[in-house]
Structure formats: C-alpha cells, structure tokens
Design brief:
The complex is a heterotetramer. Chain B has six helices and nine strands; from the N terminus they run βββαββαβαααβαββ. Chain B is of the alpha/beta class. Chain B has one domain (8-203): Rossmann fold. Chain C contains nine helices and no strands. Chain C is elongated. Chain C is mainly α. The relative contact order of chain C is 0.14. In chain D, helix 2 (54-81) runs antiparallel to helix 3. The N and C termini of chain D lie far apart (59 Å). The chains are: A mainly alpha, B alpha/beta, C mainly alpha, D mainly alpha. Chains in contact: A-D, B-C, B-D, C-D. The A-D interface holds A 4, 7-11, 13-14, 16-18, 20-21, 24-25, 28-29, 32-33, 35-36, 39-40, 42-43, 46-47, 49-50 and D 38-39, 43, 48-50, 52-53, 56-57, 60, 95-96, 99, 102-103, 106-107, 110-111, 113-114, 212, 215-216, 219-220, 222-223, 226-227, 229-230, 233-234.
C-alpha cells in the first residue's frame, strides 16, 4: 500500500497532478450543478408567482 | 441649395419596441412621417426618447416591430439610407481641443462639402466671430450652436435631433426653431426628441 | 473615393488634435524614452549584454508605447459623440477605423520608428548602417497597432476603460513580437532586410490587416447600441 | 440540427436524458480509467511512475485545444445564423476550457520537474498552451465584463473567432521561436511508443474528459436558459409599458 502511494519516489508529482485535476474539475462540476439547481428553483418560483398574479393570461 | 429635398423621404414605424441593456424601455410606437413634416418626441427624462431616436437612426436594434425608411416610396435598408440622415446626438460631436473652424473643417471633409460653405453656416447659427476660438472655451449654448452648424453642413433631408435646445437660452431656442422650420418648409423631415415645446408646426409623439 | 476621403479626414483630425492639445504624440515618445533608459539600467553598462538587448528593447518599448496610445483610441470619440454621429450618418465605419489606425501610426508609430536607430546606438550596436532596422520596426509598428486596434475596439464596446486591451491584444501581439525581434536582430547583426523572419512578419501583418478593420467595426457598432 | 434546439423546452428535454448519460459515461470511464491509470498500467522504463501523470495531462491538453475549437465553431454558428443557444454553448465551454488549459500547464510542469529537471521550459508546446490559456482568459473577461448579456454575447463571438484563427499562428510562431532559441535537447519526439497497456487508461481518461465536458456544456446552457427565463419574468417590473398618444392627423400647433 505504502509502495502504491510512494509511486516509486514520484508520489508527490503523481498525486499532485491527479489531485489537482480532480479538485479543479470536480469543483467546477459541483459549482455548476449547484448553480443549475439554484437557478432552476428560482425560475420555477418566478413561474409560479407569475401564474398566481395573472390567473387568466 | 435645398436640392437634396427634391426626393421625398418618409418613415413608417409599426409597433416599434427598443431595449437598453436588455431591458425594454419603449414599446408599441407606431407612426408615419414624411418630408415637410416635423415630429417632436416628448417625454420626461429617462422615458426612452434617446433610445427611440437611436432606434430610428438605426443605431439600436429593434426589439419588436418594423421601421422602414423610404426615398420616393422605395424602401431602403437602414445602412443604405444612412447617407440621408444628419444626426445631432446628445453629445455634440465636438472636439474641445480643436477650434470652431477646425471642428467644422473635419466634418466638411467627411460630408465632402466645400469649405466655402462654412462662412454662411456659421452665420446662420450665429457664432460668427468665434471661428478661431478653441471649442473648449465656448459656452454650453455656443457649443450647442456649433454642433447644430454641423447639421446644416451635412445638408441632408432627414434631421434626427436629440435635445437640440438643451442648455440653450430663449433666443437660441427661437433660432433653432426657425432653422428646423426652414428645413421642413424646404421639404425636409425632422424628428426631434425634446422635453420642451419648439415653435415649429409639428406633430407630437408622447412617450412615458 | 469616399473611403479614402474619410480615412484622410479622420487621420488628419487626430494628428492636428495631438499636436494642438494634450500632446498625444509626446506621450508615446516620452514613455518610449523612459522605458529604453530603464532597460539600459536593468541590463547594465556591459556592451555585450546591451548589444543583445537592443532588438528586444526596441520591440518591447514599441509594443508598450503603441498599446498605451491605442488602448484609448476610440474612447474619446465615443464620449464626445463623434463616433455615434459617424455610425448613424455613414454607410460604413471602415474608413473611420482605418483613419484612426493611420492616426496612431503617425502620432505614435512615427516618432518610435525614428527613435529606433538612436536606441541602437545607445545600446552599443556597432552596425554602420542603422537604417537597415527601420523596415522591420515599421512593419512591426503597423502590426502591433492593428492588434491593439481590435482589442481596443472590443474594450471600448465593453466600457472597460482600457483595462482589457492588453490581455485581448496579447495573443495577437506575441507572434508579431517573436518574428519581429528576430527580424530586427538579423538586420542589426547581418544586415539582412528581407530575411525569412521578415517575410513571416509581413505575412502576419497582412493577416492582421485582413481581419482587424472588419472586426473592429463590428465591435464598435456593438458598443454604440 | 441547431434550429431544432432553438426551442429551449426542446433543449431541456434533450438535456434531461443527455446529462445523465454523460455522467454515466464519465463515471463508467473513471471507474476503469483511474485504477488502470494509477495502478494496473505498467510504469515506463524511462519515466518510471511519472508516466501516470500522462493520463491526466494528455486528455487535458487535447481538451484545451478541442474546447477552443468548439467555442470558435459555436461563435461562427452564432455569427452566421444568429443563434443565441450557440452563444450559450460557447459561454458554457469557456470555463472548463480555461481549466483544461490550466491543468495542462500545471501537470505538464509537475511532470517536467523530475523528467527534465525543471518546472518550466519555454518549449513550443508549453508556450503556445500558455498563450491559449491567455486567450481563454480574454474570452471569459468579455463575458464577465459586459453589463448587457446580448452585447457581451456578440462581442464574445468576435473574440472566439479571432482567437481561433490566431491559435495556429501562435503555434507556428512559437515553434519557430523555440527552434531558434532553444536547442531541442530536452524533449525528444521519439519518446516512448505507447503500448496498449498505456493506451487503454489514456483512452478511457480522454473519454471521461469528453463526457465531463459535454456535461459542463449541457448544465451551463440549462443554467443560462433558466437565467433568461428569470430575467424575462423580472422585466415587466423594470420597464414601464409605454402608450404613445395616438397621433391625430390634424395635431398641428405652433
């Protein structure tokens, strides 16, 4: 196991690269997903309010 | 001199709406005007007078509706019609670092007019004697007269004027009214965005 | 022809304006002189180092001076309504953009091109005929002005106050810089004018000439909406 | 095909099955790609374990270039057919593209440290990727700066197109510059020929990146569609409906 993490002495390099890729891409992914959910919810709220305000368009 | 108005220009607007920064500011505007007429667009500050004028000038795209310029009943695309328009924008298109004469000389070259026209035009807007003053040293009213000189210099059938009497005194307003009156009696068309009445026979469009 | 008339009118007005007030032409050359002097101090008085730094210094100074001037080339015309008026009254803004470019070249580029041989003397370049580096520097000034022009037009449309001109122009300027420095170095070192590098610099300039005016007009019209 | 998606509802319906599909492909590829890349693939006889960096570096590099091509294509589409959804696609692609470019630079640099003995060389590829990254930043700045969405979109088209035409020029010029200035001793073109045991994780990771990118675009476009809906709902509050007076023909005075 330790041998796996050591990566033949290049553990720092390999794990930095994979870690950073994961963090940056994953982070952007999570940020996008959350933003999508938030705007979707907001859009729905606006929709409902508009429907309430003018029942017969 | 007014041979340019021998062609009959006209503008037809149907249900025009225009936006500023993605937000609709003026909507549902319909009218038709032609040569020999002046139309005054009245409205409070921020009512969208300038935006509507911008749309008529083809600078701001329409959000809704149609807007057709025509020469002798032939509808022309806006870009092609541009050479019939003289526009007085909110800012007067004056370089404060240049003299009155240099300012007008620049526009002489742009409009391809002989510089011999200048003397009479300067006289008509009543700023004679100031030709060699730097435009930056003029009063606000004189500046407005200078920018109006450019409209006369352009010698075009359609005048689009945005607040031509802004920061100008009563005498100036009368002078500019007279110039607009002269233009329409020569068969020209003037569309004026203004917040105060001008002493010209006109049709009015109120927005806001 | 209408286009040529407008180009001339705009360029002439800008030149008169820069001579009359504000001293626009001085701004560029003063910046240039200061930059060159600082570079000389940075490299130290050693003649070898200076000689090698001559071409890069000339080019960087030209790049920055042009970008400084060009980053605001449209802003004044937008603020005083001149551009708005031209956009409404003229069928095309092409003449205006070309005129502005010509203005920048005359006001800023001209003095810089003249100054280039003087810089080379100060940087211990021993060539007998310093005029030999002029073609490459002139070509470069044209290309860099073009790159700055389209960036400046986009920046003006964004109302960015000059902030984004540098970043928008960078990708366009880098190839110019790469070929230009080599072309000038070669001219200084081996008196080659029409080197392969110079040919590529010319090609890059032609490319920019083809795309920049059109895209600048588009960006400016957008900015006026 | 694009006109088919001009209807936001139709795009929404498409995204509803395409998004999960993209995620499925992404996680499927990662499930095999990560273990293969990190453990099961052999180490390189020259580079040792650092070769494992390649599995995140190469796909990022490919994507950084592909994404700008995508942005340019969308810009062109928007330019020619005035298609607003294409603008949204290009906008949604810019952020991921910049991250791919940044990751390419970072992972390349970390790989270069043990392999070349230096964090950074002004190698042709590194340099042109750096400039591509700058181009992304410029492109994103245009979107971020503008106050009017519509205007920003149309300016971004210009930057996307000019940037793209410029990419091959940058590449070429940097190549040229590099060969003149830098003896090509550090990088050899005849590197390790790729063995199938390395090709598999590389392919899987590349596919994962493509799936991830597709998901980024889908979710970004959906977000902007919702944002537009919200803006449209909010609009009647911001503007006043204008009723111009009917102009009577005899409305003359003065």
């Amino acid at each position: 196991m330790a041998e796996f993490f050591a990566m033949g002495g290049y553990g720092f390099h390999v794990w930095t690269c994979w870690g950073l890729s994961g963090i940056l891409l994953g982070g952007l992914g999570i940020a996008r997903e959350r933003r999508l959910r938030r705007t979707a919810k907001l859009a729905k709220q606006h929709d409902e309010r508009a429907k309430r305000e003018e029942p017969n368009p | 001199m007014k041979s340019i108005c021998s062609d009959k220009v006209s503008l037809q607007c149907d249900e025009v709406a225009c936006a500023r920064g993605g937000v609709m500011v003026v909507g549902g505007v319909s009218f038709a005007v032609g040569g020999g007429e002046a139309m005054l667009i009245f409205g409070a500050n921020g009512a969208g007078k300038s935006s509507l004028l911008g749309a008529i000038a083809g600078r701001i795209p329409l959000m809704e509706g149609t807007l057709n310029w025509a020469v002798n009943d032939d509808v022309l695309p806006q870009r092609q019609f541009a050479s019939n328009i003289a526009m007085l924008s909110h800012d007067g298109a004056i370089k404060t670092g240049l003299s009155v004469e240099q300012n007008l000389l620049f526009w002489c070259r742009i409009y391809n007019k002989p510089r011999t026209d200048l003397a009479s035009i300067v006289e008509r807007v009543k700023i004679s004697g100031l030709e060699h003053r730097r435009a930056g040293t003029l009063s606000a009213g004189q500046m407005r007269r200078l920018s109006f000189a450019r409209i006369l210099l352009a010698d075009r059938p359609v005048w689009l004027l945005d607040e031509p009497t802004a920061s100008i005194d009563d005498g100036g307003r009368a002078d500019i009214s007279a110039l607009i009156g002269g233009h329409i009696s020569d068969g020209g068309l003037a569309i004026v965005a203004t917040h105060e009445a001008l002493d010209v026979p006109h049709r009015s469009l109120r927005i806001g | 022809m209408a286009l040529r008339r407008i180009v001339r009118a705009v360029a002439q007005r800008d030149v008169v304006l820069s001579l009359a007030g504000g001293g626009g032409w001085l701004q560029g050359i003063v910046f240039y002189a200061v930059f060159v002097a600082f570079m000389a101090f940075a490299f130290g008085p050693g003649e070898d180092a200076l000689r090698r730094a001559a071409a890069p210094t000339i080019w960087l100074a030209t790049l920055f001076a042009i970008q400084l001037a060009a980053s605001e080339m449209f802003i004044e015309d937008i603020q005083d309504g001149s551009l708005q008026t031209l956009a409404v009254e003229q069928t095309s803004l092409l003449g205006y953009v070309i005129g502005k470019l010509a203005g920048v070249l005359i006001i800023v580029g001209g003095p810089l091109i003249v100054a280039a041989p003087i810089v080379s003397i100060m940087f211990a370049v021993g060539a007998t005929n310093l005029a030999i580096l002029l073609p490459s520097v002139a070509m470069g000034a044209l290309a860099l002005s073009l790159a700055a022009c389209v960036a400046s037009a986009i920046n003006a449309a964004l109302q960015g106050g000059g902030r984004f001109t540098a970043i928008l122009a960078a990708p366009l300027s880098i190839p110019v810089l790469i070929f230009g420095i080599d072309a000038t170095s070669l001219a200084i070192e081996s008196s080659q004018i029409w080197s392969v590098e110079m040919q590529f610099l010319t090609a890059m300039t032609l490319f920019l000439m083809a795309i920049v005016p059109g895209f600048s007009v588009l960006a400016l019209r957008l900015g006026l909406e | 095909m694009l006109s088919y998606f001009s209807n936001p509802a139709r795009f929404e319906a498409f995204a509803r099955w395409a998004s999960p599909l993209a995620l499925l492909v992404l996680f499927g590829c990662l499930a095999f790609g990560i273990p293969m890349g990190l453990y099961f693939s052999p180490e390189d006889y020259q580079q040792g374990h650092t070769v494992r960096i390649m599995y995140v570096h190469v796909p990022a590099a490919i994507m950084a270039e592909l994404v700008f091509g995508f942005i340019a294509l969308m810009s062109l589409t928007a330019f020619v057919w005035r298609h607003t959804l294409a603008d949204a696609c290009a906008r949604a692609a810019a952020g991921p593209g910049a991250i791919f470019a940044a990751l390419t630079l970072i992972t390349g640099s970390v790989w270069g440290r043990p392999t070349w003995g230096t964090w950074w060389v002004w190698d042709a590829r590194l340099t042109s990727m750096l400039i591509l990254f700058l181009t992304y930043i410029g492109y994103i700045a245009v979107w971020q700066m503008g106050t009017d969405e519509n205007k920003s979109a149309r300016l971004a088209r210009i930057v996307g197109l000019v940037g793209f035409i410029n990419v091959p020029i940058v590449k070429f010029s940097v190549d040229w510059w590099n060969t003149l200035h830098q003896p090509a001793s550090l990088l050899r073109a005849d590197g390790p020929t790729i063995h199938s045991s390395m090709l598999w994780p590389l392919g899987l990771m590349a596919l994962a990146y493509i799936a991830l990118f597709s998901w980024f675009v889908l979710s970004g476009v959906r977000t902007s569609i919702y944002e537009k809906q919200i803006a449209r709902r909010a609009q009647p509050l911001a503007s006043r409906p204008i009723k111009p007076e009917q102009m009577a023909a005899g409305d003359q005075n003065g």
